[in-house]
Amino acid sequence: xxxxxxxxxxxxxxxxxxxxxxxxxxxxxxxxxxxxxxxxxxxxxxxxxxxxxxxxxxxxxxxxxxxxxxxxxxxxxxxxxxxxxxxxxxxxxxxxxxxxxxxxxxxxxxxxxxxxxxxxxxxxxxxxxxx
Amino acid sequence: xxxxxxxxxxxxxxxxxxxxxxxxxxxxxxxxxxxxxxxxxxxxxxxxxxxxxxxxxxxxxxxxxxxxxxxxxxxxxxxxxxxxxxxxxxxxxxxxxxxxxxxxxxxxxxxxxxxxxxxxxxxxxxxxxxxxxxxxxxxxxxxxxxxxxxxxxxxxxxxxxxxxxxxxxxxxxxxxxxxxxxxxxxxxxxxxxxxxxxxxxxxxxxxxxxxxxxxxxxxxxxxxxxxxxxxxxxxxxxxxxxxxxxxxxxxxxxxxxxxxxxxxxxxxxxxxxxxxxxxxxxxxxxxxxxxxxxxxxxxxxxxxxxxxxxxxxxxxxxxxxxxxxxxxxxxxxxxxxxxxxxxxxxxxxxxxxxxxxxxxxxxxxxxxxxxxxxxxxxxxxxxxxxxxxxxxxxxxxxxxx
Lengths: 131, 401
What we know:
The complex is a heterodimer. By secondary structure, chain A is mainly β. Chain A has one domain (4-129). Helices cover 0% and strands 49% of the residues of chain A. Chain A has strands at residues 4-6, 11-12, 18-24, 30-31, 46-50, 54-63, 74-81, 84-90, 105-115, 121-129. In chain A, the strands form two sheets. Chain A has a six-stranded mixed sheet with strand order 1-10-9-6-7-8, with no helix packed on it. In chain A, a hairpin with a 5-residue loop joins β3 and β4. The two termini of chain A are 27 Å apart. The longest helix of chain B is centred in the N-terminal third of the chain and has 16 residues, at 24-39. Chain B is built from 13 helices and eleven strands. The radius of gyration of chain B is 21 Å and the shape is globular. In chain B, the strands form two sheets. Chain B has a nine-stranded mixed sheet with strand order 3-2-4-7-1-8-11-10-9, sandwiched between helices. A two-stranded antiparallel ribbon of chain B has the order 5-6. In chain B, α1 packs across α2, α3 (85-98) packs across α13 and α5 crosses α10. The chains are: A mainly beta, B alpha/beta. β6 (54-63) of chain A pairs antiparallel with β5 (208-211) of chain B.
């Protein structure tokens, strides 16, 4: 099995791929990248927390026209993962309004972005409909 | 009139659209000369300038403008605040006048965007031949398109869809009908970039950009400028009765940013900061939403207009769809919204927008809006949102003089 690297640091690979966030230890606000102080309460201590891998689609768009080099169409959305909002694409679904709707139940899924010259495989994530 | 109030003495906007032969300095100068003439003053009367040109932020549009119309040595504040840049320039002048720094100031915004296409989400380069983490997320490849979208039509589509998920009643057709309204309104506005009405079928059948926003449901990139001369009430007292009669009172000038809320760093929350700005503005002006004779709000996309009916409290919370269905935001309705055609049809030369919408309101308050005049308009509101975010709200009132 080739060496793998996640698309972003907040994606943890392994047997149970999941997302992680920095959580303010005083108010519980969560951030996917680093913060010097919490944007909500100014707290300066954070702990790493796992984000639920299942959630509900709170909103979406189907991007049909994007910057050069970005394949379209794709479904971009916000997934409510047990109270934490996560930005991601809805994948493994037909990208049309008949197949995507707010409120649909989704789960985290990973996919390969391909291997680099040294054989390392980059792994991305999206959310797919629950079976 | 109370002398601690601030008034718009002169204001103008250029024709929005394509100006291939004019650069940003030409356009800004045209707006400034127009605003000075409208206020019957000259650069010699102006004590401070706030100038915005978002795409050229850093180049000093204010000083370039001075070289074109008058270098009097006064302070210039070059401002940038995304799509709220124009409102920020206006607000900067209001603050300077309220602080007693001078008696008259000039706010100007200009942009050249005709044919600009998508304004966010840069072209994706081909992936590198070695995956190595970059940036705040330690990303090994471009994120836009792989983890959601950075495109403005896509971001604002989600904002409208989120409202529909929360309150129900939205559909592709509903959003398209909002666009149909604004395109119809623009037929009466000779300064709009687009002045043709569009049928619902044309709008829904046009090029899909980011569902549910098709091309005519997106703000029109175009060239344009707008400028305003503001004076203190003390100064206005010394001017002619004609100037006093046409002066428009700035009853509220508010700028807010978004306070932290869950999800606001995942998908921009344009709701809370608009609601906060509106609340402060109504309080400052001593008027309520029911007093407004017209509203120019930031319909950067059809999906955005809907949520701002609610955010500006033109309807009860959750009632934006009913508000639209009632006919209220049409020019014949209870609270006409975007009678200029809005950003979707009048156009959105970014830094000009937050002054051009004030011009539209002033035009009606002065009774000078011709065929599109809202009869006997006394109070109006102008709103902009710059993603990131900044929200500007100005409430304007017809002069009592």
